[in-house]
Amino acid sequence: MSTIERPGPRPPRTFGAMAGALVVLLVVVLGWVGFRALTSSKEPTPVPTVQWAGWVKTGRAEQHLALFAPDRLPAGWRATSVSYVGGIRPQWHLGMLTDRGRYVGIEESRSSTSALVKQYVDENAVRGKDVVVDGTTWESWSDAGGDHALVRSVAVDGQPYESVLVGGSAPATTVERFVGSLTSGTVKPA
Questions:
Q1: What are the Cα distances from residue 93, in Å, to 43, 107, 108, 134?
Q2: Disulfide check for 90: which of 27, 61, 64, 131 has CB 3.0–4.6 Å away?
Q3: Any idea what the Cα angle at residue 115 is, between residues 110 and 121, rounded to 5°?
């Protein structure tokens, strides 16, 4: 006949024993996190630079939007995103980083100026004083987070046709200077 051995009595579970186990576990976890932080060679992925001039040429050839864009970017700036959608709901976007790493974007569509402000600045954007750039009046808008934009409606044959917004996290003076460098094509309403 075999005998069954019973384990000996368990040590008492005390608060001190549980706290000690927790400290040991915490040291192991922190050690692992520290080791991974020191041995990881993963660097942040840089924002890519995109070619944008061909998009301007294509969009202007369609003549669905005026397609506001600079002839060339200011020194040290680079384009990071670009898109053009033609057809019955045309849209133009050019996103850039300034020489100081601040964002400036151009958004253009047949939406109203207020719709562009809500979408690209803030639902609660605050209107500032109008700004005149090269004889054209632009509405000034900003939000509590420091974004600033200039926006205006573009008329064709005396009727509102489209809206353009230029803005981002760059200072207001930078946005205003950049707006002064923009050119546009012609529009043929459908």
A1: 29, 5, 7, 22
A2: 64
A3: 120
Q: What is the pLDDT of residues 7-51, one digit of tens each?
A: 666 666 777 777 777 777 777 777 777 777 777 666 677 888 999
Contacts of 104 (CB under 8 A, 6+ apart): 77, 95, 96, 97, 98, 166, 167, 168, 170, 174, 175, 178
For residues 3-8, give the mean pLDDT: 67
Architecture of domain 53-183: 2-Layer Sandwich (3.30)
- What is the CA 4 to chain-centroid distance, rounded? 71
- Residue 14: its pLDDT value, please? 77
pLDDT single digits (tens) 90-139: 999 999 999 999 999 999 999 999 999 999 999 999 999 999 999 999 99
Q: Is 37 helix (H, G, I), strand (E, B) or coil?
A: helix
Cβ atoms within 10 Å, residue 156: 13
| For the chain, domain boundaries | 53-183
Question: How many CB atoms within 10 Å of residue 28?
Answer: 10
Three-state DSSP class for residue 32 = helix
Sign of torsion, CA 145 171 81 123? positive
